[in-house]
Amino acid sequence: MVGSMTVSVNSTPPVDLYANGTVHHAELLPASDDDHGGIIVDMKEPMDPDIFHARLRASLSLWGQQGKKGIWIKLPIAMVNLVETAVKKGFQYHHAEPNYLMLVYWIPDTPSTIPANASHRVCVGAIVLNDKREVLVVQEKSGIFQGKGVWKIPTGVVDEGEEIFMAAVREVKEETAIDTEFLEILAFRLVLEDGL
């Protein structure tokens, strides 16, 4: 058996797999251990679907023998030709980004503990007070309140990787060109359905 290692597609060393008392010589997919007893396959080089199928089958066999659990395959958009092969082996879609698709597979015969994809979008609204305790309000230049004469606080969506406080400061600057200082979070709201 092979311990944990990271290998590239072009230099994947063959391994001996044991099944039904027989030794099988096989090449594996490029992979590394994750922090939760699973494997991350990060495909970087194009691969023929038949070769991918053989390496995926061998890899899953080895990882199952090693007691691995969740398997993640990160497929760049240029390798979508491999999706069908992975799905036929039991992989499911987890999430997609502009440049890749993430597939997951749970090996053990137990309930999966793979977390669901992010399901929430974080928005901010900024209440800005000046020294006279006047509240800053704006009218939307686009969206459902455009041209309706509605005054509201500056609002917007938190960007990926952005802190909530930075998003509030940024949204005020974008909508009003006013520099502000973040002091505190006033409230939270959770919307479970599409809505305002």
From TrEMBL:
Record has Hydrolase as a keyword: yes
Residue spans crossing the bilayer: none
Keywords: Hydrolase
One function term, GO molecular function aspect: NADH pyrophosphatase activity
SUPFAM superfamilies found in the cross-reference section: Nudix
InterPro entries according to UniProt: NUDIX_hydrolase-like_dom_sf, Nudix_hydrolase6-like, NUDIX_hydrolase_dom, Pre-Nudix
Superkingdom: Eukaryota
Domain Nudix hydrolase, chain residue ranges per copy: 119-196
Similarity comment text for this entry: Belongs to the Nudix hydrolase family.
Name assigned to this protein: Nudix hydrolase domain-containing protein
Lineage of the species this protein comes from: Eukaryota, Viridiplantae, Streptophyta, Embryophyta, Tracheophyta
